[in-house]
From TrEMBL:
PANTHER family: XANTHINE/URACIL PERMEASE C887.17-RELATED, XANTHINE_URACIL PERMEASE C887.17-RELATED. The chain crosses the membrane at residues 21-39, 51-71, 78-96, 102-122, 134-158, 170-190, 197-217, 326-359, 379-406, 418-434. This is NCS2 family permease. Keywords: Cell membrane, Membrane, Transmembrane, Transmembrane helix, Transport. InterPro entries: Azg-like (IPR045018), Azg-like_bact_archaea (IPR026033), NCS2 (IPR006043). It holds the Pfam family Xan_ur_permease. Its main location: membrane. Belongs to the nucleobase:cation symporter-2 (NCS2) (TC 2.A.40) family. Azg-like subfamily. It is found in: Cell membrane. The keyword Electron transport does not apply. It is a multi-pass membrane protein. It comes from the Bacteria.
Amino acid sequence: MENFLEKSFHLKEHKTSAKTEIIAGFTTFMTMAYILAVNPGILGETGMDSGAVFTATAISAFIATLVMAFFANYPFALAPGMGLNAFFAFSVVLGMGHTWQFALTAVFLEGIIFIILTFTNVREAIVRSIPKNIKQAISVGIGLFIAFIGLSGAGIVVQGQGIPLDLGDVTSPSAIVCLFGLIIIGVLLVKKVRGAILIGILCSTILGYFLGVTKLPESGFLSTPPSLAPIFMKFEWNNILSLDMLIIMITFLFVDMFDTIGTLVGVATKANLVDEEGNLPGAKKALFADAVGTTFGAILGTSTVTTYVESAAGVAEGGRTGLTALVAAIFFLISLLLSPIFLAIPSAATAPALIAVGLFMMSPIKSIDFDDWTEALPAFLTIIMMPLAYSIAQGIVFGIIAYAFLKLLTGRVKEASPIVYILAVLFILKLVYHV
C-alpha cells in the first residue's frame, strides 16, 4: 500500500506523509460536507426529488474529486457548487420559468464545452480576457445572493407591505434555528474549529427538533441511497437551439470558470504549488476534473460541479497531493449510506451555512480597484444586481455592459478585450428582447 501511495501521489517529493494527507482529506470533507444537506434543499425547490439529488450530489463529488486525485494529483475536492445551484434553481427555473430538465441540459452542454475548451486551451484564454475586477465582483455578488437566500429561507427577511423587503418574525422557530446556527458557526470559525459549518448545521438541526422544525426520519439513520431514477439523464433537447439556452449556458460557463480558476489559484498559492509567476503547473488537468464532474453531474441529475474553496482547510492541515482529494472522495462515497441524516436536515438549519458561505465569498472585494471609476462602477453593478434582481445572470449582464460602455466612451477601448464588447452586445439584446 505504501508503495502504491508513493507511486500514485509522490508523497516524498511533496514533503508530506500518508497520515498528514489522510487527516487533510477528512478535514476537507468536513468543511464542505454541508453541500450534501444544502444542495438537495436548493434543487428541491425546482420540483426535483431531494433524495435523488442527494445521491447525485455525493456521487458527482466522488467522481470529480477522484479525477482530481489521480489525474491532476492536487489536494482539491469538488462538488456541486454553491451559487451555481442557486442560479440553477432560483434564476433559470423559478425566475425564468424553465423546467429543471432544461437547466440540467444547459449544465450538461456546459460540461461538454468545458472538456473541449480545456483541451484546446481556449478556457484559459477566455478567462484571461474577462476583466479582473469583474471576476472578483462576481464572487462577491454571488456571496450576497446566497446570504440573501439563506435569510429569506429562514423567514428573517420577508417581502414587505408597501416596501420591497422587510424584517420577518425573528422569534419564529425557523428564524431562531437559523440565528442559533449562525452564532455557533461564527464562534467555531473564531476558534478555528475544522468543520465549523457542518457542526453549525448539525447543532441547528438538533435545536430544530425541540422547536418542531426538524422531523426525524421514520426509517432510521442508515439506509440504501435514494434512487437516481427521478432525475437520471432527464434532459430536454427540444430547446437546445434557443437563445435562452445559449445565454444560460454561457452564464454557467462564466460563473464556473471564475469560481474554479480563482479557487485553484488561491488554494494552490496557500499550498505553495504555484510557480514563480503565480501559475499553477498542470492547471489543465485540474480544470479537466471539474469539466468531467460537471458533465457526469448533469447526467446524474445535479447542477454544475466545481472546485471548492474549502479545500484550503485541508491544505492548512498539510495536504499537498491527490491523496488528500482521494480521502475526501471516499468520505463522499461513504455518505451515501447516511442519506436519512442529511435529508432530515431542515432548510432553517442549512440557512446559516448559506449565510456563512456568502461571507466567505466576499473576500475578493478587497482586491477590487474602487479608485478607477471605469472599474469600480461595473464591479459594483455586478455585485448589487445579483441579490436585488434575484439573479446571478443579471449581475453579470449589467457588469459587462457597464464595463464595455465606460471603456468605450472614455477613450480606453483597448483596456477591454474584444470578447467583452461581443458579450456586451449579446447582453444588450438579451435585455431588449427579454430573453
